[in-house]
Amino acid sequence: MFKSDEDKIQDKLLLLKLKEGNTDAFDALYEKYWKGVYAAAFKRLQNPDQAKDITQDVFLQLWLKRESTNIDNLPAYLFTATRNKVFNWMEKERRYTPVPELLLQLKTSCDQTDAEVLRKEFMKACEALINTLTESQQRIFRMRYQQDLSTSEIADLLSISRKTVQNQLGKAVAQLRASMLLLALIMLLN
């Protein structure tokens, strides 16, 4: 779909106002483009919560970088930003092996009795690792991965921004990832 010259001029004016910190300009751009950004993220992920998070991140970055970013074609910029955020999210997911999947691998590699003993030891060790996180990281991690709440639900319950939730989750997962994988390997080798 091609934009009219009027649309391009309107976008340029809104972007100029955005650079000056005009929140009305930001709101106008958000209203105009959020559906397209969300649709692009959802098309690749098929996950409405993650598509919402990515949409939020794209527009947050637009706001945060408003003074330093020169944008000639806003739809192309937003599409590229969305695509990059989706790819980054997919890359993180590939590196992350959920605990239930690790436990399933554990069960298939051992007989049932040994697997149950190892599962209990693994869960106890996982809990100990989770307890090494800061109090806020523990709370957010448990809400996300034990209560299966979305980042927006957690943000609403804790009265904090979704970006704060995402940052805390990222730090917690990064801290736990290496330790948990090492723990799983040790348990599988024993």
TrEMBL record:
Organism listed in the record: Mucilaginibacter corticis
NCBIfam families documented for this protein: Sig70_bacteroi1, sigma70-ECF
Keyword Transcription: yes
Signal peptide: none
Protein name from the UniProt record: RNA polymerase sigma-70 factor
SUPFAM superfamilies the record matches: Sigma2 domain of RNA polymerase sigma factors, Sigma3 and sigma4 domains of RNA polymerase sigma factors
One Gene Ontology MF term: DNA binding
Pfam short name (any one): Sigma70_r2
Top-level taxon of the source organism: Bacteria
GO biological process, one term: DNA-templated transcription initiation
Chain ranges of the HTH luxR-type domain: 130-188
Keywords: Sigma factor, Transcription, Transcription regulation
InterPro entries: RNA_pol_sigma-70-like, RNA_pol_sigma-70_dom, RNA_pol_sigma70_bacteroid, RNA_pol_sigma70_r2, RNA_pol_sigma70_r4_t2, RNA_pol_sigma_r2, RNA_pol_sigma_r3/r4-like, Tscrpt_reg_LuxR_C
CDD domains (alphabetical): Sigma70_r4
Gene3D superfamilies: 1.10.1740.10, Winged helix-like DNA-binding domain superfamily/Winged helix DNA-binding domain
Family affiliation: Belongs to the sigma-70 factor family. ECF subfamily.
